[in-house]
Amino acid sequence: MPAASTKASTTVGAASAIAADSPTPEPHAPGTSAYRRMCVALFAAGVAAFALLYSTQALLPAVSADFGVSASAASWTVSAATGALALFVLPLSALSERFGRRTLMTVSLTVAVAVGLLVPLAPSLEWLVALRAIQGAALAGLPASAMAYLAEEVRPRALVGAIGLFVAGNSIGGMSGRIVTGWAAQLWGWRAGLLAVGVLALLGAVAFRLLLPAPRRFTPGTLSPRALAATVRGHLADPLLVRLYAIGALFMMVFGAVYTVIGYRLAEEPFGLPQGVIGSIFLVYLVGTVSSAAAGRLVGKLGRRGALYLAVTTTAAGLLLSLAETLSAVLLGLVLITAGFFAGHAVASSSVSRTATTGRAQASALYQSAYYLGSSVGGTLGAIAFHSGGWAGTVALALLSVLGVVSITLYGTKVARAQRRSLVVRTGA
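User: That's the sequence. What structure does it adopt?
Assistant: Structure tokens below.
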């Protein structure tokens, strides 16, 4: 018996030594099957998640008509989802450190899709808003984990390309979800539109789970609320990070207000567009894909603050142009608003990663919280402004948000100049 025990102990010790000596697997590289599967899987996840997140936005006029509610009341079907995502993205980022990125993304998408298939059955606006809030909270697990998964599993030189495909999936999902719901609603009603998006998201979620390679470089961590709170406090004590969070929230307030209300404006006279055509207006999102990709070059030429000034100028010009009563002017205004917003968002979000020297995942999660909170607040306030003052009221609210971005950027420029002068005095240069 002692000999057997000694032999077993020796075997366990040898196995532990082998495990300890095993090298960490190499990250996936472009050109490999695993890398291709990973990119396609996360693209599919992005499409599914963001098609669900904004699925009711193009349908708001139809929802208002069916339930007999105002634009501001119907807008809560969008704001509840984005607001819940904003609240849950930080705690779910902590859960992904403990239970794994792929596990959390799988659970998040599964819950969100299941709720998405129930949403068309909502018997009242209150039920619809509640289900959308649950859906938004579930979807918070995707952005909280996807970036960390890629950073762990992909070679550093290939990381930008992999993240780019995930972000492309986000924008295409948001765009396609609105277009699908718009045309399906025109043919069969808004509930059919939501069901169509639910089925699209189900297909994306299945593709994600079948294709995503198992993590090979993830090391589970411990859940420490105290350490998480300390990291968050540190980020919120950094003035530059706080300014970047505010810029992201204000930009998204503009975007949320405009795209929540634009369907109502285009459905009214002098435009009178049908639901399917209104949904197709979201093809303008493709402009944002181009402008966000160009943001890096803009920062290289103009600097971060210069790029932000250009973004807010473009956005403000689009808002003013959208006041015209011709469809071509409104569409051009939407193009400028979308280009300015995506460029500004790209500059602010990339600056967060560069500014945070520790706890980058939590710094990015805080930015996402501010970003989606801005979307939630902007959508609701934009609808209230539209109800009170028409499209001009929504534009006035959006211009106030743009002014906020300008004020923060000007203040940041003043602080940077003061720091440079102080450095010159101290060094005697």
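Residues 180 and 193 are 7 Å apart (CA to CA).
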